Amino acid sequence: MSPKFKKSILVCNGSSCLQASKVNLIAEFQAKLKEYNLDNEIQVVQSVCFNKCTLGPNIIIQPENVEYSTVTKEDIDDIIIIHLLNNKIVERLVYNQVYENSGSTKKQYRIALRNCGFINPEVIDDYIEKDGYAALAKCLTEFTPQEVTQQIIKSGLRGRGGGGFPTGVKWDITSKSVADQKYVVCNADEGDPGAFMDRSVLEGDPHSIIEAMAICGYCIGADKGIVYIRAEYPLAIKRLKIALDQAKEYGLLGEKLFGTNFNFEIDIKYGAGAFVCGEETALIHSMEGLRGEPTLKPPFPSVSGYLEKPTNVNNVETFANIPAIINKGADWFASIGTEKSKGTKVFALAGKINNVGLIEVPMGTTLREVIYDIGGGIRDGKKFKAVQTGGPSGGCLTEKHLDLPIDFDSLSAAGSMMGSGGMIVMDEDDCMVSMARFYLEFTVEESCGKCAPCRIGNKRLHEMLTKLCDDKGTLEDLDLLRNLSNVVKDTSLCGLGQTSPNPILSTMQNFYDEYHAHVVDHKCPSGQCKSFMRYYISEQNCIGCVVCARNCPVNAISGEKKQLHVIDQEICIKCGICMDKCKFDAITLN
Amino acid sequence: MDTINITIDNKNFQVPKGSSILDAAKSVGINIPTLCYMHLHDLNTTHKPTGCRICVVEVEGRKNLVPACATECLPGMVIKNQTVRVLNSRKTVLELILSDHPADCLTCPKNGDCDLQSMAQKMGIRHLHYQGEQSTYIKDRSPAIKRDMDKCIGCRRCLTMCNEVQTVGALSAINRGFMSVMAPPFQMNLEDSVCTYCGQCVAVCPTAALTEIDHTAKVIRLLADPTKTVVVQTAPAVRAALGEEFGYAPGTLVTGKMTAALKDLGFDYVFDTDFAADLTIMEEGTELLDRLTRHLNGDPTVKLPLLTSCCPGWVNFFEHQFPDMKDIPSTARSPQQMFGAIAKTYFAEKINVKREDMIVVSVMPCLAKKYECNRDEFKTDGNPDVDYVLSTRELARLIKQASIDFDSLDPAEFDHPMGESSGASVIFGTTGGVIEAAVRTAYEVFTKKKLHKVDFEQLRGMEWIRESTVDFDGTPIKIGIAHGLGNARKLLQDIRDGKSHYHAIEIMACPGGCIGGGGQPLHHGDSNILLARQKALYSEDKSKVIRKSHENPSIIKLYDEFLGKPMSVKAHHLLHTHYFDKSNHVEITKE
Amino acid sequence: MLTICENNVAKIEAICREFNNDKGELINVLHQAQHTFGYLPEEVQEIIALNLNTSLAHVYGVVSFYSFFTMIPKGDHPINICMGTACYVRGAEKVLDEFKKLLNIQVGQTTADEKFSLSSLRCVGACGLAPVVLVGDKVYGRVTLDGVQEILDEYKS
């Protein structure tokens, strides 16, 4: 908080809240504060996702950290009068205590998101007040690049973009490449559907990324940084630009930083909607103005990357950890998490769960803690079925994995992966075959098309899954599906194809009975696949009123007046209109 | 040479350090199958997009299979080429590629000459386990090249040729994933693009996605028409390559057999484009000397260097990409067009055949020639000087269709008068040959002295850009040579920037010159074949009695009887041309 | 032949100049051009290729690779349906089908009256409101099948 203000009202500016709000809450608050003559004492700050998306719009009042949910324009007077002027809580807006006590915040531990929601991302002083740029100062003035790199290695930080490669080791390799020019690239092309942690960091704490990139530049010997960011993130772009300008103005970017000989500047390049650009060689080609197609590694970017110069690529969340590690020490960071996965991980929790939103938990937290303690359990009292981690590259984990401590290696061992941190919870109504098909549809659309197994293989996998969902599959198809999944994984050029069959393989492993049911019993156990539905007309209830036949859009129903009617299953498109129209409950769904 | 030790399938080998797994395996006699990979050694071009994934092998310690073509051998590397995992993966990937490829092999133009077909055969594919939607595209017929992208397997060799070697930029990968394909911008027809019809994409396409427009049927019909006098000319590079289609070793000269086959096919007159090549030297050489003399006399308006203009792919290239320099190349028509113009005037008169009753067919190593003969400026009242162009491959097909036993043919001679030629004209078929032929004549005309050593070794070779200074009896003449349009671009850029110091430059669109033309028998990535063809042409040159164009008696007679002298009004009318600006595709309007 | 007016050529030239006519900046140039013209018609790509000294084929290869770039002018009310996983799980596909049915167009198309265009996109980060539909900048959360017609009705007239 800037010193001149006594209090801050943080208005969640996560997309959910923003969009849930009928009005511009920030403007409304500002107008009201002016009315009450409080606008010089209390500031209104746009903030990022508080992980209570379902309850939005949410606000937090600082420094006391009181959270209010479902805030509307009409609540503003109460908040000002009761809370700000009389220091009391507006009880009706405090959202349910059960959620609080269940450990939603207790189990969480913020490192990457440490400042998100707590500072004004558009004010550099806010960041500086929270030790901002102290880490950079320390690195430049107290340590050699090698010493800083050693600290990052010692911290055990691994890349948060998906691969989990040790960050310090990557820096070390890049630092050893000899070249007249090197680059630091921040991968902010978050493409995993359902994951938005990188955007939140850039929207909520852009300076931490700038600071970390500069530290990285110092370590590897680069004086140029580039943020490759999705064009679909206008707010993140805007805030990043503001932050860059401010950093330049404060001399935290530019020449001779902190009086040393270290220079560093940062440019922005825009992604344009290609998931494959999350792969670092594809990302680099995209930055070069080319189609975002990957190339074979080696050579790794650390040897030959952007413009064929040594390039270190890390994603946003990875960078967000760096200043904290420098400030608090590698040992501190290494004390959090599991043996091989240190620190915390941000997840975007979504799906059939009560509390949807961003969370950050120490590595080693179990899925059960995430889903039940933080996520508040399954919606509508339904039964938990599976959780998909790692997005289209990951796999589905089940009931038996609930007590699995989450880290890079445990997830891989269980047939899924950490990925960038998408976490979709599914309940008993979700069909696992359809789910695999959904992910393959995504991969088919996002495959760059350069290598044959990914270009054609994923297409065939998707077609086979569609066949299964359409009640046209055979047992032989299941064998073919598994073989092709393995071959696509084994032979594809880049990470996209090497992981795209994971949703199939993991669901086949954990829910083979569902696949079996689709092809042998001709049933979709969860009832999601339409093709397996059969509408029947019951002999007892049908009075032959002909209403169903008249309303059937495809004339699948036949029968004389006052006679039993029959549905031709071949013609029926399962639209359900007959069932809606029948006044005698004569139509049943099987 | 440094070597390292590696293991392939449990056997230890010593291989050169830095070699790829593919090359290392090859050096010890293990052939790893490849599909998209292409290495044109003598042309310094390697294409390894690692896209087909057919060459995958297992490497101990690596999680996934790796492509052998682009993975470097490291000391102690343990490679497995024969495991079930490797074989199953290759076969499955090939099945995938086949599942998105029409299965019309029997009627396909590449039947028997298709890399995909032979791969399927090699791998023993008997059944496609994976089937589904196939990609379909509109077929595109340009005057020279046919695109049937249903048959594209995404190897991208065409892109390397079009964009990197030739820098034409007519093709690129478009869309993505299953919808991705190689196409001109906006999927426009090739005819509307900047394509030069050099045909290098066709020359490297492993399937029938890119093929030549086939004119054999039309020619067969005309041969059967008793009212037509059908004249054929054969370009120099054809005789050095045609034999390959009949099982002869690359570089076998089959001039006599080819002539005999053409006569058997029913052509009324079998002539040689070499005759017209000699004629080209007379015109182009005279133009060079004219510009040179004016330049040496201090005329500032004269344009130098003179650029050769016999290559139609090259002409298309500068019309599209360097229209501001269209007055620099020689105005001399290509040998093919000079031949057509003379055949339908001088020769037609001689044998008393009306222009419309004479058909001129060319056999060319080139696809751009198919386009060239269709240019309006080479037509008289709509009647083209050259009616049809067959590629070397099409001629081979014609001979096979006619059940001619090529092997047992007795060599025949070309007919007169347009079958007579000098050694200088034969080497038109290789890079460096045109300029060498020009120098042989220009030297004698310029210095008025006899040239004793006619072999200009310094102008020969395969390097992309070569240069040499020839001493014209005290006047140093600087000569540049480029083959491959990408290299031509470099020289052109220098001229545009005023940095060029040459007096004359020879440019050939295709790598190696016409011997590597888009209409030649497919080299399947073996650039040694080009070297063999080149050697064959120089040996034919050497075997000729007359080795300078201006000493060709038929040419001397042609000028005496018909043209007068080089660059005369009549010669200008029949043997020279002008060029067009084809760069504009968008019209800029006021409003 | 395609035509383009001087004014627009000048705009494109200015954009290219801003990026030093560097073809390595092609994607940034395309972003700016699409921002200026709303879409990337053939003639715009041609002028860009000319200014960046690269082939038109290359420009189109890039444009057709990235889903953010479009060669079709958007309707007055561009409709975007979020197909992120959270939205999918909550029925976004059915909502999309309903839009397709009611507008009689496919994804990536614009209605004949140029009023609506339909696209799907990946996760707008409003997972709490799934399924989510955007019409222009306006967001509709928890959209039901019946709600689709209601949304469209808002923009008819």
Structural topology:
The complex is a heterotrimer of chains A (590), B (591) and C (157).
Chain A: E1 7-12, H1 15-20, H2 25-35, E2 42-47, E3 59-62, E4 66-68, H3 76-85, H4 97-101, H5 124-129, H6 134-142, H7 145-155, H8 167-176, E5 183-188, H9 197-204, H10 206-220, E6 224-230, H11 234-249, E7 265-271, H12 280-287, E8 311-315, H13 316-328, H14 330-334, E9 344-351, E10 357-362, H15 367-374, E11 384-389, E12 395-398, H16 408-413, E13 422-427, H17 432-446, H18 452-469, H19 475-491, H20 495-499, H21 502-510, H22 512-521, E14 535-537, H23 547-551, E15 557-558, E16 566-567, H24 577-581, E17 587-589
Parallel strand pairs in A: 1-2, 5-6, 5-8, 6-7, 9-13
Antiparallel strand pairs in A: 1-3, 3-4, 9-10, 11-12, 11-13, 14-17, 15-16
Helix pairs in contact in A: 6-10, 6-13, 7-8, 7-10, 9-10, 9-11, 10-13, 17-18, 17-21, 18-19, 19-21, 21-22
Chain B: E1 3-8, E2 11-16, H1 21-27, E3 38-40, E4 45-47, E5 56-59, E6 66-67, E7 78-80, H2 84-99, H3 115-122, E8 140-141, E9 145-147, H4 157-165, E10 172-174, E11 181-183, H5 200-204, E12 210-212, H6 216-223, E13 229-234, H7 236-239, H8 255-265, E14 269-272, H9 273-296, E15 306-307, H10 312-321, H11 335-351, E16 358-364, H12 368-372, E17 379-380, E18 383-384, E19 388-391, H13 392-401, H14 423-426, H15 433-447, E20 465-472, E21 475-483, H16 485-496, E22 504-508, H17 528-543, H18 553-563, H19 569-575, E23 586-589
Parallel strand pairs in B: 1-7, 13-14, 13-16, 15-22, 16-19, 21-22
Antiparallel strand pairs in B: 1-2, 3-4, 5-6, 5-7, 8-9, 9-12, 10-11, 17-18, 20-21
Helix pairs in contact in B: 9-11, 9-15
Chain C: E1 2-5, H1 6-18, H2 26-37, H3 42-51, H4 56-63, E2 77-82, H5 85-89, H6 92-103, E3 116-121, E4 133-135, E5 138-140, H7 145-155
Parallel strand pairs in C: 2-3
Antiparallel strand pairs in C: 2-4, 4-5
Helix pairs in contact in C: 1-2, 1-3, 3-4
